[in-house]
Every structure is written in C-alpha cells, then in structure tokens.
Records
---
Amino acid sequence: MKSSHLLLLSFVFLSFTLSAPEGSVPDIEKDLVAYYSFNQCDARDESGNESHGRMYGGVSCWCGVQGEGLLLDGQTDYIEFGGRVNAAFGTTDFTISFYFKSSGHSVFEQSLFSKRELPDSVRMMDLRLNRERKLLITEVYEHTWKYYSGLSPEAATDTWVHYALVRKGTWAYTYINGILQNTSRKCSGVDISNEALLSFSNSPLIQIGKARRFKGILDELRVYERALTGEEIYNLYLKNPVEEANDDCLT
C-alpha cells in the first residue's frame, strides 16, 4: 500500500516537472524567513535570519521525519520563537509548514502552533489537534465576524502528518501531506497582527483548560513571507514523504 502511494506521488511530481516550462521550477528557498530542522536537538533558525526558538520544560530529541525531531511531553514542554519570524503573521501573504506525530490520547485539543495573546484575543492564529474528531483545528481570525471559515482539515492521529497553511491575499488554504484540503476566502484581508510570540504547544487556551500541551514529535518547521503554490507545497512534501518516515526510533 505504501509503495503504491509513493509511486502515485512520484508520478504526480514527474508530471509537474515535465509540464513546467524550462527555467520555471519553483525556488523552494525563496522568501524563507525561518527554517528549523531540529537536527541539533535545539530550536535554532537555520535560515540565517536568527529567529531562534527557546525551549521550555524538558523538550528532548527523538527520531523525526528526517534526522532528529523534538519530543514534547504534553505536560510542561513548549517552544517560543523570537525575531523576524513573528512579522510574517500580519496582513501579508505567508506559509507555515511542519511535520508532527502525536502520541497523546487526550479528549482535549492539543496545542500546535499559535500566535495569540490571550484566550479571548481576536487577532490571532491558533492551530490545535483534535484527536477525537481527527481534525486539525485551524483558526485565523481578525474579529469574531471576520475570519477564514472552514479551514480545518481532517488529519491522522497516530502517524506522521505534514501540514501547511497558506494565506494569499484574501484567500487561505490548508494542505495535508502535500494535498489541498480546504479553501476559504474573505472579501477583504484578515489582519492577524498581534504582539504574541509564535509558539508551539503553548496556546493561551491552555490557561483556561480548553486545550492541553502537545505530546509527540515536531519536525521540519518552515515559515515563508509569501504564499507557496500548490505545486511548491507538494514538492516540499516530497522531500520528506511520511510513508518513508521511521515510525520506531529503536529500529
């Protein structure tokens, strides 16, 4: 089953490549504002823009989708990212892409990435995993009446998942494992500017008991100051397809 799926992915990728005009292959590093491989067991930004992350609790290393990933315990572990990466989440186009593997079996939603000041803040981005509904809650809000609706894609809960959120002008898109899942549009842009730091496993909703910290592995985080195309998202996913990930660090 895995081999047939990989064969299909390779065929689609080859079709993209052959149909693209010469010299038009996308530059996947263009406007990359922050990149974290986590291969050094820390949250250093390898893009050169110095948006280094700070780890709290007892964040440790475990095998990732490629090399090492960061293992969080679902109790006290979280990460905050400082620097230029935070300016990407405002009124302009952006893309956030990452891999995760959840191992927490809670009825509560688990906090993934958020940039949100308070539990009742309206200008914010908040991504959470609902294992019960197998849903990746995707909230991108300016006001309670101005936000991207219907963006939350279905997601597997016990295996590696690649997720990408893209905002392009008045449109927003979510992708799972390189494939477009949901699309949303507003008549005017959605301003999510705020003073909070981008964080992982640290949504303010944890403070009021509406979410829990993430238990599992985070890997290969990328943030762009532009909207990647569907083809670029797919090509990015093909660099580390989940079918090839090691599900057992001991083997």
---
Amino acid sequence: MFFGNVNGMCAEKVTMTKVLAHRGASRAHRENTVAAFLAARQLGADAVELDVRQTADSLLVVHHDARIAETGRPLTDTPFRLLPDYIPTLDEALDACEGMWVNIEIKNNENEPDFDPTDHIAELVVLALDRRNEPERWLLSSFRLATINRCRLVAPAISTAWLTVEVPEGTALSVSGFGHRALHPYWENVDEALIRECHDQGVEVNVWTCDDPEAMKRLAGWGVDGICTSVPDIAREALRTL
C-alpha cells in the first residue's frame, strides 16, 4: 500500500501513520514553494502534498488558487513568464521533493475559471510523471471524481485518491470500486468506524488538514494511514510520543 500496511494491529498502525506536509512545510514557509518543499523533509515529513494547475501556455505549475493574488488574473490566462517568481513549475517542485512520496492534487473545480471539463490536465500531469519513471512515488488526488477517474484510466500504475469534505454512506465502496488507492477526507469528518470500513475495502485513509497534536494522536490510534498537516515537525513529535 502507498502509505503502509492497513492490516496490522493498532500499535503497528500508529507506527505506520505517515506525515504529509500540506503544500510543503506551509506554516514555516510560503505554501507551495520550493523552500516549503525542501523544509518538509528537514522537519520530518514522509511525503509532500502539493497543488497543480495550468498556465496560459500549458505549463504545469504548483499553486493552490485559480487566480494570482498579486494581479487577480487566472493562471490559465497568464503565461508562465508573467507569474511571480515564487510559483514553481511542477518539475521544479518534484525536484525539490527528490526521494520523497508526493501527493499531487489536481485542481479542477467547475466553479473556478480554469475548469477543464475534458480533464486534459490529468493527462498532462501523467505525462510529466511518466518522464520520471518512478510511479511508486506518486499519489494523484482531486476533489473532482471524474478527474481522478481519468488518471486511473490513463495511468493505472500510479496510485490515486478521492478528496472529499463530507463522507456519505457507501463512499469507501465507491472508492474501492473505481480502483482508487485512498480516500482523503477532511479530518474532522473521520472516525474510527470510517477508517475500519475503508480498510475492510482495501482503501487507505489520509486526512487533511490536521494541525492539532491531540487530534493527530487520536487519528493515529484509530489507524489512519496518513495525516496531511501544515506542521510536519509537530506531527512527527506527536506521533513519536504515542
């Protein structure tokens, strides 16, 4: 499994809970920047989570919002040369994460100006990853199920995960049925029963975005596979004290 064995006993599950640095070490550095990704490793993260979008000239870049804060313009209307220097390309970000697992969230929201109903961005991301020939290092995720299903279709060797806020009944079965490796729910909507249900379906659970050490311990005790957090150093210390 991408983030460890989900079939172990509780003590093993606690040990195997992984720390994902949310947009890098985003409390210590500006989010989704090379500095944040480099710091994630230094602060004890097992993996990095980042967001990918397209520019007007079809370059893949790492940025959470659809618009550039300084100009208000959508990234899809802006060529790469006009972007602020702090926004890295996907390749630059992956170079900074060398040797680590990387969870790449594909941003494709129908309510945002860069929405792509064809999900072509999924194919562009897969092509970029294929050039690196390290499929075991990547976990592709998206809030849009169609986008992540597209990834599953064009790149079956790369693990995929469905991002959610709420977790309706039957979600674990749906994730398993589509062939996705993991469910990524908002941490406050997760309980031990959900984790058990997902594990019974062979689905991992990586929660976002939890910065509360006591909640991290509780989630790890329930057997959560990964905790996405803006404070990987605090998460590492919290898990170490279990």
---
Amino acid sequence: MLPGPTSPGPTSTGQTPTAPTPPAAPAPAQRDRVARAVWSALVEPGDEVAGALVAACGAAAALDWVDRSLAGSTDWDLLGAGSDLAPPARARLTRALDRWAARRPRVDAAALARAGARSGAHLVVPADPHWPARLDDLGAAAPFALWVRGEPRAVRTPGVALVGARASTSYGERVAVDLAAGLVAAGLGVVSGGAYGIDAAAHRGALAGGGRTVVVLAGGVDRAYPAGNARLLEEVVRTGGAVVSEVPPGAAPTRSRFLQRNRLIAALADATVVVEAAWRSGAASTAHHAARLLRPVGAVPGPVTSAASAGCHRLVRDGVAVLVTDVAEVLDLVGPLDAGRGEEPAPAPGDGLDPVAARVLEHVPRRGALEPGELAARAGTSLAEVRGALGALELEGLVRRVGAGWAARPRGERGEG
C-alpha cells in the first residue's frame, strides 16, 4: 500500500516545500491488464458467469464490483441493470461470489506480476495485437488472458490442432510426426497439449520440420507437465514457438483444468485432427469443442481391431469428424486461409460498401459463425444496423447464413446463390 501524503513543515530556508504530486492513476488499459491477470487466478477456467460479468462491465469494473460485494456492499446498480436484473441472474452471481470468496484474499496482482517475471511469461490480453481472435468465439467461456512463454505471435499463427492418446502406438506417433511436418511445410502451425504420446509426437514433428508449434498447458507455464516433456517444451520456446496457459504461473494442472484446456486447443486452431484415440479419450473432447465452434474436425483411421483408434472411428461414425489419411487431406479440410485467422479483411473503399456494412464484415468469421447480437457487440453497432448490413452483404454474396449465425463466404463461392 502506498503511504499517504504528509504536510511538510518549513525548510531551513523558511520556505514551505511544495507537496509532492500524487502518483497518477493507472491508465484504463493498464487497469484492464491487471484486472485480467487477477481474474485468471481468481476463477476456474471456463467460468461463464465471470466471463459474462467481465463482458458486461469490463474486467476492472467487474473486479471492483466483486470486491465491494465480498466486503458486504453488493450494489446491483453498478452492473448497469439495477432492479431489472432477473432473479435467476442474481442467483447465479450470488453463487459465483460464494465460489470466489475463499480465493480472492489470496490473489495479489503484484505477486502475479512477480511470478510472471520469474517464469519469463508474457501476459497477453484481448487488447494486445498478439491476442488470437479465434478465442473470442468461445464467448463467455473465453479466457481472460493468456500467460505465454516464448513468442506471443506464434499463438496467432494459423494452424491445426493435432491431438490424441497418451497411450499411443508407434503407428499413431509416426502419423502425428508426418502430419505435423507436412503442415509446417505448408506454412501452418501445430497446436497440441504437450502430453506424452500423440501430443509430443506432433510437437516433435513440427520442430523437425522447422516450424512453430504451440503447447497449451492445463497448469502454469512454469510447471512442465508431464515433467518428462520439460526439455521438449524448452525446445518449443527456443525455436520460436510458445507455451501458453490461461492460469497464472504456479497454478497446478488439475483434472478439470485439463478438460477446459481442450477447449482452448480447439479454439486456437483452424481445424482439429484426432490422430489416435481410444473409445473414451480427452482428444474426443477437443474434437467436440471444435465441432461446437463450427471448426473442421478430422480423424485418422486405424486398424478396426485397435482399441487405440476406436475413438477416431467413433467420431467419423457419429458425423463429428471426416476421415483424413495424409497431409493433403488435412489441408483440404482446413481450406485456404487468409493471413491472421482467416477472416475476411476489411474491404477497400472502392468496394462500394457503406461504412457500417464494412465494419460488420470485418467481424464476420470465415470459420465458425456469429449471431447478429454478437456481431453488433463486436462491431459497435446497433442490432438493427447489423441486420440491415447482413442483408446487404448477403445480396453481395459476401456472407451466408449458418444456422442462427452468419459466416463469410469463401472467395471461390462468391456470386453463387
């Protein structure tokens, strides 16, 4: 805590010195960054109540509201809804406060900053240029920040998630290495979870091909897990890749965090391929997350007698994944990617779009789909303006309906009905 100003007396010359200028309040961007670091430690990954609260109020204001509420002064008006906040929403927030109460006194922003510095981690937040916009498709379940060891730009690189069983076979590992090497040769990155088996083989294949790979951990970036892959993770960092986590340095990898980590792997990638997976496998969880995000999912077949491939066969049979057997088929699954996340770039002024339609188009994804309400929030326009813009963009052949949402048309489809 900073000491308060004092009233100095006269100096030896008889002059009263000027009182020191109080330190300036942190800029809003810095307050947001600090608050997001605190949120990353305060709540468990995937806490959608916290995510919705931060989306509604901003990270810093939401944290202030939590602190006041935990101190016994819950002011619902600070949420901007006041007495209009529905009872179920109040009940969810009240239960969430109970969850957060025990941990809040232990979360200190300065300690988090020191832990990040000790581990060599960068804190990447949504306002940063290196924030991977793909994560925003997770909505209220999106991470508040990413702790990144290595090259933050690697996390934004278009890429494919290669995932699979820890108890892998030599066949599965060979396929993972070959796919990863082929993908980096095509200019894509490889995303996986750093575990034994298929994950490690995918990372090694990317490294052998001279490409970048991203390791997504369930615990802090300073806690290599499994420990036997510590040297592999260091090699990833050394060669321009990244080791990332949504929980701060020092955080332990727990079962629930592994399950939530899978959603990040799926969200960071343009497509997910399950190389080898048993009937019940965490890799299948990653595939289902990708499918919910409307990202392409592939599965590599194996011998019908192999329990190690039963999960892959199940994904294909259930229509979650398409069968892929080589790099060419994975690249076909991914399709052409623009720079960044594969979203349609803002049109040039000569394209004839009005400013609102152009702004809306910037936020319509090529991979996945967004509903009009979400597009309005991202584009900073009204819902009525978004609906009008989408109608005009549809007539121009630039967007298409996908269920209740909208996606950008690939360039090759433009002009088609």
